[in-house]
Amino acid sequence: MKTAYDHTGIEDEIYKAWEASGLMQADVKSDKKPFTIVLPPPNVTGQLHLGHAAMLAIEDIMIRYKKMKGYEALWIPGTDHAAIATETVVVKKLGLTSREEMGREEFLEEARKFAEEKHDTIVNQTKKMGAWLDWSREAYTLDEARNTAVKTMFEMMYEDGLIERGHRMINWSTGAQSVLSDDELEWEDIKEPFYYIRCGEFIIGTVRSETKCSDSPVVVHPEGDYVRVKYKPTPPLVREGDRPDLSGRGGLKEETFIMSRHLFENTELRQKTLNLLDGEFVLVESMKGKELEGQSFEYHTYAGKRKFFVLCDEAIDMEKGSGAMTISICHAGDDYEIAKRHKDKLADYYFEKIDKKGHMTQKAGACAGMTVIEARKASGKIMKDQGLLVGMDYNYEHRVPKCYRSDCVVEPMISPQWFIMVEKEFTDRFGGGQTTLKAQMQEAVRGGHINIIPDKFDKMYFHWIDNLRDWCISRQIWWGHRIPVWYDKEGNIKAYGRTEGKAIDPSWIQDEDTLDTWFSSALWPFSTLGWPNESGLPGSPDSDFEKFYPNDVLETGWDIIFFWVARMIMFGRYATGKYPFHTVYLHGMVCDEHGKKMSKSKGNGIDPLEVIGEVGADAVRLSLVIGSTPGNPIPLGHNKIKGYRNFVNKLWNAGRFVKMQMGVSKPTPNPSLVREGGYCPPDKGDRPDLSGRGGLFKEGDLSLPDRWILSRFSTVAKEVSESLETYQISAAGDAIYHFVWNEFCDWYIEASKVDMNTEVLGFVFAEILKLTHPLCPFITENLWKEVFQTQELENLRTEEQFIIETSYPDLNMVDQKSEEDFALVQKIVTALRKLRTDQKLNPKEKLQAKIKADAEAFKDQQKLIIDLGQLSDLSILSSSSLTGGSSSADLDSRIKSENDNLLSLIVEGIEVLVDIPIDEEAEKARLGKQRAELEKKKVALEGRLSNPSYRDKAPEALVKQTEAELEQVSSEIAKLKS
RNA sequence: GGGCGCUUAGCUCAGUUGGCUAGAGCAUCUCGUUUACACCGAGGAGGCCGCGGGUUCGAAUCCCUCAGCGCCCACCA
Question: Which of A231, A538, A771, A837 is the most exposed place for a label (fewest CB within 10 A)?
Fold first, then answer.
């Protein structure tokens, strides 16, 4: 064994051995209680990033822990075809400007090849993390089985009327050339000029100047208060940063405007808004919006002369702009809503100003053919030059939607698409009566069927559902599940859903579009378990679906709670009648050590594969799970990783020490250690019992450190299990870290060097390896083999065992007395070490000391203190050990008088006298400081006890405890003073 | 604009029903080449728990105000 742990090579070797062992494959016929997690499938074209690494670490810990706890643990791996993301990448890789340059089939073949190549990469990277996945059940969101599930789901929902096709306002990604769901938008803050434009007498405000190029209704509020005003300019119109309007077409001449009373009367706002007009506004008349209705007029737009007419609608906000607006029915959601209410009047106004590529149509006149962004600038300039503007705000800030995959502009457009109706009533197939998908999703969490960790996401979840609109599931891309609908030449639907056993007429045409990638992802918890083929079929008791569905925990990053988690809940409940899992564990985003998002430009990114190469997967796993709590950012930096690398090395070296003590021969069973009728090892062969259910050691054989470490281990193992049960992985890791380092290594191993019990040493270390295994699978397996097994890795399964085959530690050897006794030893030894530091003594110099104690009861501690405190002797002061006989009348004062040349340490009220040359000054200072601290504490305790309400109302035990403390503090002070 | 959350040591963060002297890692200071480990050991220093108020015998913890920070949703006139 090397002095420093070297993970290189061995991790891959261990993973291969696990795979070869067959142990990773869950047994559907097992009697054990199932525990199931489905791996959130990484994008097949992706690289392993830190988010995956965190996910893998957390889920692997859960799986290994449950497996060692005796569950039939199943963790299903898989990959996601990631429709839009992959298609975008493939188009780029093939050097196409659009997929149409290649035929559909040819393109799909290329995409398939690409996905296959990339698949192996992500799978191998997943294995690097040590993930205990059942590869025999690996799934893919775009494979045959999942396609069957998709078609079945589509069919069910279509028949229930929950899937409909219709023309609606949708989000169009000009880059991906597809519709996107509301959740697939990413919003970007930008600053753009905001224009106030003349439109006849009206003034309309817009940031989208390019859309103001066509015939349009001017919409006003029917009950809104409007005014017609006369505008009298104040020439010359020259101001800083502005040029006089020399065109003579506006600004300088008298004219009339119609605006909201709100704008007219708020002078400050008016000046700010109509900042290109400098003059006087004089009221001509007042009117309600409805009085304006129906008026029509012609006016110049940047693209030429256009017709307008006035329409009333209550959607108008009188406080915004001038209280009037024109609408672009095909290019804005709100406008479309207004148009729907005025169908009869607006039939002629449904025309596209922007095409699917994001270019302006012929409607845009001079700007036709430009991109939206170009046209926005150009049209603004034209309008300014032509005097069509009455106001401008250069600092208007708003947010624009971008495509989350192709990062291009998203345009609202009207298009025929397929939708899942989340608010439509249907009859629950599982006896839930009339309900809606929305209601089922709400019930999942509200009814306590699903527990979200941390619970702050409950609110986010409900908020999302409350605002949820129908889910657009069709996509105009090729890579994905093609929508299972067939039309005849007239466009009538002739077939849908599953095709097995159905006659598909060759003349029918399948829908060109594919399904949203999240449609197949939403089926993942049960499509991976054989649904629909293995579900609900009588007499299929051994099916994965029966055994492992519902899943137990769904673990993922909180950022896909809506994309994925909510939709799995929706589909799971709808299709199987059961919520797909009982617990949702959401981890946060990995960020750098200062809480900043990792990004290439900042250079603070960490590549998980690179660091695994440097320090090994175990250290990386610990870095990702310790020091972070669910839902909160996971801070990660090289310092942290280094810290856990050091821990892994510490564990390694503890293993080396244990192995050295156990000798070259492997440990053999010591019959004297196993009690009559005690624990019987469940394992094959005559190996030592390292499983530790208690009843293993004879009381009399155990030293104080033995009893202490067994007791402490019992407590810590319990804490760790409890933490893992309650998904507090960080707390579990922290407890292990400190137990191993600060108790086992710092104290037990040190004590062992003096008085060795190799059975206990080996036993506790073996238990530590088991306890740590879920967090650090590689090094624990490695040490398990090195220290406790005789066989090589490949033979472990048949001849001995892998560590995961053992039981998770559950030891009941808590011994309060030993813990207290050992704690006193630790405190006295620490005090002695501090004394050496303070007095600048040679650390190697052995000291003489004395202590007052019961010689027999203190025997164990005495020896330990001598050894660990580097003493030559620690004599026990008792009445008989003092000169002048056995009278114990005033033992303390006699001790004092006979030893007043010795330095006195007060530890836990016990006086330790040390024979060293006393530096009077330093000693005085030390005592003064200690006394001050004690006095301060005494005052606090007395204050509390002198409060009658405290004695009255605080629990009795607490009051007693306070009294005991006061007593001890007082006695310590007395000893210091004497 | 609506909502959620955070503020604890120099840094990153724990602190689970209110109760011992508020903890950890890293950084820092002093000492140390003790044969498991220098990827180490020993010891130390460092906190009005954001500000102000309230409830309580008792508040980092519960309630309210304010300030600062972060996030989610909505928002294209």
Answer: A538
